[in-house]
């Protein structure tokens, strides 16, 4: 798979997650954040396990304890990120939540440099900040005063940055993307389920009312989109992946406008353009650089 194809998979994942914002918002009227996460990730795990077993039969080697350790780290990072986001979004504005979640675009290359000692292509830095600015404009160009919910969203961005950074490492070490997806979903379902049983009430009526949103979040936002992320990140860098995945905010705004009749401010269209420009730059500039070096 080429890098362009991989980045297109990540763009598709972001589009699915954009629709997930609508499902996530609607489901909170019926069930708590931990139950929502537990049910969606349990459903995703059930959907992926058959494919993971098929992958296992074709694998050249068995998974090691080290492989499973990487898988659990990825799952734990996603669980903590999703939990912080679900809880935090209840006590902050949608504008703040969308913008602050998008901070992982900047955090991923920082982690690459500080922790992994890897220098991303120079274009990553300006496009990362361009993306963050685009997300800010997409949400009207201003933020409300920071609250406790905002702090949780910032913590969410940190954990999502870790998940995006560690995912390609785990896949390259094991060669088993679907096994990673299954274990990741199991960790998320189990952790969220324990928290839900301890902290949140639940009823069959509530689950039935939120079932369409749970099905979308479980089968598409989790089952399909996270698998696309894992596969796509095998063939691109974590900082590039963060740029493409951040378009989730753009798609979320578009789906919100179409499905929930939410209005996009005029300045938001400028933000859309900046995010799209960042994706083009992060794809085109490295390719032009390689061609220039090859012909030199």
Automatic annotation (TrEMBL):
Write down the membrane topology.
Multi-pass membrane protein
Major location (coarse): membrane
* Membrane-spanning ranges: 35-53, 65-85, 97-116, 123-145, 151-171, 178-199, 214-231, 243-261, 267-285
Q: Which GO terms describe its cellular component?
A: plasma membrane
The subcellular localization recorded is: Cell membrane
Output the lineage of the source organism: Bacteria, Pseudomonadati, Pseudomonadota, Alphaproteobacteria, Hyphomicrobiales
Record flagged with keyword Lipoprotein: no
Listed A to Z, the keywords are: Cell membrane, Membrane, Transmembrane, Transmembrane helix
Q: Write down a Pfam family by its short name.
A: EamA
User: What protein name applies here?
Assistant: DMT family transporter
Where does the EamA domain lie?
6-139, 148-282
């Amino acid at each position: 798979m080429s890098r362009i194809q991989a980045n297109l998979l990540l763009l598709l994942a972001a589009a699915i997650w954009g629709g997930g914002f609508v499902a996530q918002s609607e489901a909170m009227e019926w069930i708590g954040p931990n139950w929502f996460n537990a049910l969606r990730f349990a459903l995703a795990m059930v959907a992926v396990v058959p494919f993971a077993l098929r992958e296992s039969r074709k694998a050249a080697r068995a998974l090691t304890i080290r492989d499973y350790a990487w898988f659990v780290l990825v799952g734990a990072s996603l669980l903590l990120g999703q939990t912080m986001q679900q809880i935090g979004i209840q006590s902050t504005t949608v504008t703040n939540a969308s913008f602050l979640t998008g901070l992982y675009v900047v955090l991923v290359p920082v982690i690459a440099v500080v922790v992994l000692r890897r220098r991303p292509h120079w274009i990553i830095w300006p496009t990362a900040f361009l993306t963050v600015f685009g997300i800010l404009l997409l949400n009207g160009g201003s933020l409300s005063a920071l609250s406790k919910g905002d702090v949780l969203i910032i913590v969410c961005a940190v954990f999502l940055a870790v998940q995006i950074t560690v995912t390609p490492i785990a896949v390259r070490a094991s060669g088993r993307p679907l096994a990673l997806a299954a274990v990741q979903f199991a960790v998320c379902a189990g952790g969220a389920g324990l928290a839900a049983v301890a902290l949140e009430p639940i009823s069959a009526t509530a689950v039935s009312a939120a079932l369409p949103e749970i099905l979308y979040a479980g089968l598409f936002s989790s089952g399909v989109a996270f698998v696309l992320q894992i596969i796509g990140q095998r063939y691109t860098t974590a900082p590039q992946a963060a740029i493409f995945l951040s378009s989730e905010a753009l798609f979320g705004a578009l789906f919100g406008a179409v499905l929930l009749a939410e209005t996009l401010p005029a300045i938001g269209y400028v933000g859309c353009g900046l995010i799209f420009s960042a994706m083009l730059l992060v794809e085109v500039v490295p390719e032009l650089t390689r061609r220039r070096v090859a012909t030199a």
